[in-house]
Design a protein that fits this description.
Length: 236
């Protein structure tokens, strides 16, 4: 993947390297490889498809650095689907070979915005707030339960069920085995991603998460809105 990271105080800004077109070509090549059904040459992607493509981009970057034995990416694996499947955007499970106490879950929520203000990314704070919110359908416990059921029923890995359930906790402060990766896929020109992600990370930490468990990402592409349209159409 043609993105290179620059990290500072658990904020990582990913810039395409050597050019944004190189990253675009690599992403398009992967969409072709997974047999994506592109939209028409004059059609425009819906907001749902744009969001799904943002998750797809985030997943492609994450594959290079996040350790994972099992990945759950309901929308990123079919990004041109006109519907969005509810649940966590991206979850990566790491199961240590010899010590279950070292198991980890990485939860990556993604927001995609071509606006220079980057204000839409503030919704990441809302998404992570749901993990210990009042709606039981969105809590960490219910999300881990759904993942464990998928491992048992769909992936035929019943031995991992209890290990997944043990990753959870009753409060953000107790979540020693959860890592949060709030991610913004954004327009590169005229934006200040570092400042925005510092604020988002601080806001999430203020809900009780230990700062060491949060690494915020910003993934930048020039002409993002146009690129998302071209990717959806299957165009270079």
């Amino acid at each position: 993947m043609t993105f290179s990271p620059t990290s500072n105080n658990q904020i990582t800004v990913w810039l395409s390297s050597p050019t944004c077109q190189d990253a675009h070509d690599a992403l398009l090549g992967r969409l072709i490889a997974i047999r994506s059904r592109f939209i028409g040459p004059k059609d425009n992607p819906s907001q749902i498809v744009r969001g799904n493509l943002g998750e797809f981009i985030a997943m492609r970057v994450a594959e290079t650095v996040i350790p994972s034995n099992q990945t759950f990416a309901p929308n990123a694996i079919n990004p041109l689907n006109s519907a969005s499947i509810s649940g966590l955007d991206l979850t990566y499970l790491f199961f240590h070979q010899t010590d279950e106490n070292l198991d980890l879950a990485f939860i990556q929520e993604v927001k995609t915005t071509g606006q220079s203000s980057l204000a839409y990314a503030d919704n990441l704070i809302v998404d992570y707030g749901k993990l210990f919110g009042t709606n039981i359908n969105f809590t960490l416990e219910s999300r881990l339960q759904a993942i464990s059921s998928s491992l048992e029923i769909e992936r035929k890995l019943p031995a991992l069920v209890q290990r997944v359930l043990k990753l959870g906790a009753t409060s953000p402060q107790a979540c020693s085995k959860i890592r949060l990766v709030p991610t913004m896929v954004h327009e590169r020109n005229g934006t200040e991603p570092f400042t925005k992600m510092v604020a988002i990370r601080q806001a999430i930490a203020s809900k009780g998460w230990h700062p060491s468990t949060i690494e915020a990402w910003a993934i930048a592409l020039t002409d993002l809105d146009d690129r998302l349209t071209r990717l959806a159409r299957g165009h270079k």
